[in-house]
Task: inverse folding
């Protein structure tokens, strides 16, 4: 199957700092990528849909100014958590949709963010 | 609204068979996926159904009935490593993936 990488795998930062997470589709082009957040023992929660060359579409309740998404190429989307606070600590997972493969979403390995 | 229902938790015995059901109500249908997610890891693809019937892949099989809005994932010869959450997801008419909350499967020796 297709491969999606995510970097970094884990990050610890101080409250008030910004953290950037990268999501790359390694062997296919992805017009659409997705960013999810998952708290312990809870299901995936879609945060936003990232569209190459245009603005991201945010789910209700997700602050667009806090979670900045950039999808500048067909293989890269970035999520920047600005002014992070302890409540932003979570497991962030990206996925990329392969339109040549049943529109299946291939997931990155996830980024565990801990804000102190 | 769009809705996907699956049991919250199931328990089964090592070596046995378990069936995890999923019912859905979505605006349009362009396929149903099953994903496996181990704790602390990202989901991994298990199966895809877009036509009615059974798709078999080793110990795992997935069934779809579009007229009933129903699918199940069948796991045979259960192993301890199968303990995980199993996520049902449906692609709607806009090719958006609608997720179920997942079923936590606990395997006991």
Result:
């Amino acid at each position: 199957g297709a491969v999606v990488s995510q970097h970094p795998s884990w990050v610890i930062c101080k409250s008030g700092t910004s953290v950037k997470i990268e999501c790359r589709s390694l062997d296919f082009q992805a017009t659409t990528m997705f960013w999810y957040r998952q708290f312990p023992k809870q299901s995936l929660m879609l945060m936003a849909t990232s569209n190459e060359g245009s603005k991201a579409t945010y789910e209700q309740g997700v602050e667009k100014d806090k979670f900045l998404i950039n999808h500048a190429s067909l293989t890269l989307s970035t999520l920047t958590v600005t002014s992070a606070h302890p409540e932003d600590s979570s497991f962030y997972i990206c996925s990329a949709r392969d339109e040549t493969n049943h529109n299946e979403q291939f997931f990155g390995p996830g980024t565990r963010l801990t804000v102190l | 609204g769009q809705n996907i229902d699956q049991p919250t938790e199931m328990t089964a015995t090592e070596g046995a068979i378990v069936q995890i059901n999923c019912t859905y109500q979505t605006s349009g249908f362009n396929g149903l996926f099953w994903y496996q997610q181990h704790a602390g890891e990202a989901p991994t693809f298990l199966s895809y159904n877009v036509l009615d019937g059974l798709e078999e892949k080793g110990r795992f099989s997935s069934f779809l009935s579009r007229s009933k809005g129903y699918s199940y994932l069948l796991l045979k010869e259960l192993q301890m490593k199968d303990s995980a959450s199993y996520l049902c997801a449906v692609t709607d008419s806009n090719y958006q993936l609608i997720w179920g909350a997942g079923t936590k499967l606990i395997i006991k020796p």
Summary: The first strand of chain B starts at residue 3 and ends at 5. Chain B is about 0% helix and 55% strand. Chain B has a mean pLDDT of 94. The interface with chain A takes residues 30-31, 33, 35, 40-45, 48, 50, 85, 87, 91, 95-97, 99-102 of chain B (CB under 8 Å).
